């Protein structure tokens, strides 16, 4: 696969400042890094973003994530590998990523489950991380960015 254009963030480098601020803020609110990794990976799977699925899985693995959990992300509801807090974050990620799939995109029960495990600042960080992931996914998919071929 060949990209339609170079990555837009490379072509417009000032955008990286904003992206870095979003990244730093989402990762500074006290949410377990593994939870944010899982949220990023699941949203990227839903959106079919090859570079984000690839880099997300690699990053999670480098952070100590297990293979069985990585392999089971797409079917997290049917496995015993995830905590209740992670399940709540994954449900929120799926709902906030699939906004057009139902009339009530983020139902109260999904939000309430997440709110039972995360405080307002952490919820804000998770929502911002979901939005940031969806931003990356849309940029990469629209411009046909491929997954890296050589990781060395």
Question: What would you note in describing this structure?
Answer:
With 152 residues, the protein is an all-alpha fold. The protein has one domain (16-142): AhpD-like (Up-down Bundle), CATH 1.20.1290. Helices cover 62% and strands 0% of the residues. The chain has 8 helices and no strands. The protein has helices at 8-11, 15-26, 33-47, 50-62, 67-72, 84-97, 108-115, 120-142. Helix 2 runs antiparallel to helix 8 (120-142) and helix 3 (33-47) packs parallel to helix 6. The model has no long low-confidence stretch (mean pLDDT 95).
Give the SSE map:
Elements (H helix, E strand, L loop, with lengths): L7 H4 L3 H12 L6 H15 L2 H13 L4 H6 L11 H14 L10 H8 L4 H23 L10
Helix pairs in contact: 2-8, 3-4, 3-6, 3-8, 6-7, 6-8
